[in-house]
Amino acid sequence: MKKTMEGQFEVVKIDQIVKVEEFKNFYESQSDDSENQLKSSLEKEQLLPLITSRDFQLIDGYRRLKLLSALGREEVKVQFVDVEPSIDLRLSFNMYRVKTANDLTKEVLQVFKSVEKRQGQGNNGKPYDRYAIIREKINYRWKSPKAIRQFDKIIENDFENNLLLNGVVNKGWSLSDCEKYLSELKEIDLTKNHGFTEQLTKGDLTINQVNKFIEEKENLQNNYKDTFVIPNKATSFKMNCVDITDVSAFLRKIATLFTSIPYYMLRGYDKNNLSSELGHEKTPEEFADNVGKIFGKVEGVLNETSNVFVNIGDTYINGCAMDIPGLVKASILKHTKLKYKECIIWSKPNPHPQGEKVKRPINQIEYILWFVVDPSQSKYNLLKYSDQEKEVRITTGAKDVDKNGNVSKKRKSLSKPYKKIYNHIAAQDVDHMIKCVTGKNKPAYDAFPTGHPALMAELLPVIPILMTTDETDLVYDPFGGANTTGRISLLLNRQYLGTELSTHYHRVGCKVLENSIKQINHQDFEVINSEFKEVAELTVAA
Predict the structure, then answer these.
(1) pTM
(2) Which pLDDT tens digit goes with each residue over 340-359?
(3) What percent helix, strand, coil does the chain show, rounded to 5?
């Protein structure tokens, strides 16, 4: 053994060093670049000594030892410490180490495990202060006794992979959010099988999102029952739409039925029961036949003046359309007394992108099949479309002045929902085609953070409802979902009836209706009426 002149370290044989697996494996391996950089410096000289106990147990310097061995060194510099080797000691020598997320989590976990929960005196003769010891060891990143107590609860109840602790240490998750989840919400989620804990463990949701979703789900369950009524405005039933004719109050009362039916083989709503869902039949013909039978049973709520709109997109196999709209149209005509009037094209300015393997142009249209009960009596209101470049002008006090200095008549500011409706109508320029962006249906996400797996475009029902109903008429959506049809009906001063088979989405739809009531503005609606509706109501034959 050789001693240096200053006595700061000693030189020992490399084979004297004893590796301790617990110490060696505590920190994760560093990047190749970092390894190469260290190796390059060690080729010149070992500047930093290895840290060992007097019996040569290596406490710190495992990476350096590995590289020095690879370089063929027979002797290494070491610094001895005269204390018992421990993980805590290893941590103290690595305060400024570049660490991975797992390293940081393990350090915090080690600190809390190593500091006893006890009372009495410390080694210095003063009262034992666990909080102060922990604060110092975690470099004062968390300081309050409350925060340390929250850490204790998280560590005691965390998932096997320290999911919550890692979220707090590395992702900025709130200690209070984690504590609330463990104390209140986790049991609710698991007992009621909401599924948010599973999404948390998969990394799909943060702890804040999980707490919010569980609370929102509970609020929906507590506030909305299977029958939801807003007097003289809206009724929503949690029921199969084929049973709606059992409710005598709605027989022959529907002015317009507007709905978007489940698309064939495109998505599922109940992962545990896909085979029985509409849209998951073995053949497109079987699917279309089921759709026709459903409308045959729903037909009793219609009367001679009623209109029916069915939004449906096609399904493709190997890039070829299956003609689902054509099959559905034929089946509805077969199973009902409805007459086919027209196919309205829904043109999407922002269609979803599709992969190159599809080998066809981007699908930017869907279809709205239009049926009537009696062509000679069906209601139809002629709309006058404005220039497609026109948008509602919003004034906030000062009058609008054109380039010639003429002061224009001040127009009332429209609230956001009605401004969107106004601009949607103003953008239309071709009869029997509706231009409507897909986009995020914000009202549905306002009702519940995860929305709905197949949200209707927010403004799609506007034109059909205005064309075929008058104010206070009753609009029905048999596949209500998040009640997008209902929201538009209420904003346009119509009444609404909805049915939805899924308990969860029925409740989401109820909240959408409740929120929509707060947005109704009759003055704003009159601006839209005066701008786009012809004075005379026409009853026309097909």
Answers:
(1) 0.75
(2) 999 999 998 876 666 556 66
(3) 40, 15, 40
